[in-house]
Design goal:
By secondary structure, the protein is mainly α. It contains 6 helices and 2 strands; from the N terminus they run H-H-E-H-E-H-H-H. The longest helix has 42 residues. The protein is elongated, with a radius of gyration of 31 Å. The N and C termini lie far apart (75 Å).
C-alpha cells in the first residue's frame, strides 16, 4: 500500500506518516517492510501522470509498504486508529500462540504434515531425475537418427574409406 492511502486509513496526514517512518527508519530496514517508489515506477502507474494546474502533481516520491510494513507502521504512528490497529495485531498474535499451545495435537499434526511433504518431495526428486535421464537418452538417440547421410562426391574422385 502507498503512504497516502495508509495515512488516510490511519487518520493522519501523509507528511506526519513519512516523518514518523524517517524517524524510525531502523524499524523498516529491508525491502520486506517498505521501499520508496522510484520516478520510473511512478511514471508507469496511474498516479504518476501529470495533472493540469499548479500544485496538483506529486512532489515527493511515495513509500510503498508491504504487509509487514503496515503492521510496523501501526506501532510507529500516534493516532487512535494506529494504536487500536497495533493492539489488535498483538492480540491476534497472542491468540494464535495460545491456540497452538492449547492444541498440542494440532501442532504435532502440522509437524507430521511437513515431514510427509519433505519425504514426498525427496521421492519425487528421484523420479524427476529418472525422467530427466530417460529424456536426455532419447534426445541423444534422436540426434543420431537425424544426422544427414554421408554424401558421395560427384565426379571421378573416390571417397576415402
Amino acid at each position: 500500500m502507498l503512504d497516502f492511502d495508509l495515512a488516510e486509513m490511519y487518520g493522519t496526514e501523509t507528511s506526519q506518516l513519512k516523518r514518523a517512518v524517517r524517524r524510525n527508519i531502523e524499524r523498516f530496514d529491508g525491502d520486506d517492510f517498505m521501499f520508496e517508489v522510484t520516478r520510473e515506477e511512478l511514471s508507469r502507474c496511474q498516479i504518476g501522470t501529470l495533472n493540469k494546474g499548479r500544485g496538483s502533481n506529486i512532489k515527493y516520491l511515495p513509500f510503498a509498504f508491504s504487509e509487514l510494513g503496515v503492521s510496523m507502521l501501526s506501532s510507529v504512528l500516534n493516532s487512535k486508529t494506529a494504536i487500536e490497529t497495533n493492539r489488535n495485531i498483538m492480540r491476534a498474535f497472542v491468540a494464535v500462540r495460545n491456540y497452538i499451545t492449547q492444541h498440542v495435537s494440532l501442532s504435532k499434526e502440522i509437524e507430521d504434515l511437513w515431514k510427509a511433504i519433505n519425504d514426498l518431495s525427496e521421492e519425487n526428486q528421484k523420479e524427476f531425475d529418472d525422467i530427466y535421464l530417460a529424456l536426455s537418452e532419447l534426445a541423444a538417440k534422436q540426434k543420431q537418427i537425424n544426422q544427414p547421410p554421408i554424401k558421395r562426391p560427384i565426379g571421378f574422385i573416390k571417397p576415402k574409406e
